[in-house]
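To start, one record:
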Amino acid sequence: MLATIVACILLAFLLGSGARFLRMPALIGYIAAGIVIGPWLPGSLAERGMVAAMAEVGVALLLFGVGLHFKPADLLAVWRVAVPGAVLQIGFAMGLGALVGQGLLDLTPGASLAFGLALAISSTAVATRALEERGKLGGAPGRLALGWLVMQDLVVVFALVLLPALAGGGDGEGVALDVGKAALSLIAFALVMMLAGRRALPWALVRVARGGSRELFTLAVLAAALGVAVVASSLFGVSFALGAFFAGVVLGESDVGHQAAAEATPLARIFSAIFFVSVGLLLDLSVLADEPLADLAALAAVLVGIGGGALVVMLAFRVSPRTALIVAAGIAQIGEFSFLLTEVAIRQGLVPDSVRGPILMAAVASIIATPLLLKAAEALAPWLEKRLARPESRAVTPPQLPWPVLEEHAIVVGSGRVGSVVIAALRRHHLPLIVVEEDRAGAERLAAQGIPAVWGDATREEVFHAAAPERARLIVVALPDAPQAREVLRLARAARPGIPAVIRTHSDEEVAWLEQEIAGDGLALMGERETALGMADYAMQRLGVAPSTAQATVDVLRRRAMEDIAAG
């Protein structure tokens, strides 16, 4: 176990870094790491079953994070396109795959349909990761892609019920009964999550958060994600990953969602990297030349059937060309669910072992091609928009925020002794603001006062971006910790370059660094010096110095202190 974990993480890092150095996606390096430590080369380092288990956890955590950002309103906004569109795309891609299976692999009609279905289901892990890396997951393409992927996942749930029934040669009535049971199980699980989980999970996490322990909160988030996934798979027959997705959706509707996403994201990234390593582990280099024509035909069926089919369907539903291209390119690959369907079909004796090679080759090649397809889609979008001259589809609407959309507002990070004074001053003049507060009780107090408050660690990107820094006019960092203040400033400048910032600190060296970062467009204050200047101002006025003269003296002393810092 130890050797497997170390080999996966170490080689994924080394080869992923090498891929990035060569200006290629890091996931190519992860897949190469799987090939290196796999059983097909001398000196195998990894145990395949353990890597597969870690990969399943990775997919579940990844979908949990996706669910945290996915609101039911988003699915309702795109269901008119995503639901019928995904069904049509799956049917088209399955038909192409069946033709490949019958024509090149000599499969029976039933086996070729199972083979075609494996070539028709996108990889949720790859699609969401690729869209996230290009900043598309939170926009209109991301919402439509997520709706599409959820619909595909539901098809997989029913396919896993149908495959054993088809392999057993059951009659139509028996198959219909199995499908009905699967539908009832899925509906029952969804109702339990919406009625009970919707209240119980946020309630439990809020109680943990009030205790003030970050470690316990992180464990509670993981327990919620993986616990619900286990219950979904063991009691309701829903896939492990889909159960975690439902847990994320439920928690995402609560005000603990931002911090839950921040806690889950690092682990999700590590385990999703292991998922790509597991793809490389499955790739047997010795079978690459066994069925080269079938491998290429399977890849073409994936790209044309999923990518091309989705593009045509979305354009027919009058989705904007840019959104349609990005979604089609993002989902034009197969992955974890295709492997699962293939293994189930092989175990049931529905398809022969020989189908593994073409499916694995199509999966690896399409996963590697996904970032390149997204880049090509963005380049092609202006040309297609010009040719079709079509506006954005009404079916894709922006997500609703928990408070009215603010423009040119101030972001105050921290509501302690310093931050509370700033908040009071801004509220006195009815100025728009959003507060980011790490203490759960403090965030609840602010919300009770009608102040927009985001609970969570502002140094986590998921939490900070909930305060809409791209629309903010000013950021006030009232945190006592210098490294935290630096990270918040970095996130703010990345979201809105040049945004003015006011930051507190406790050392002259930190003031000097911050002044360089702010470059005159903001203010860095050292608490002890400002206290001393305030006391000097009061003393001068108490001893008869005019207020304007006292203020001028304070300004001179502050300027000299800053000059001394810069010189020293």
Notes: The chain is about 70% helix and 5% strand. Confidence is low (pLDDT under 50) at residues 391-401. Residues 298 and 362 are 6 Å apart (CA to CA). The two ends are 53 Å apart (CA to CA).
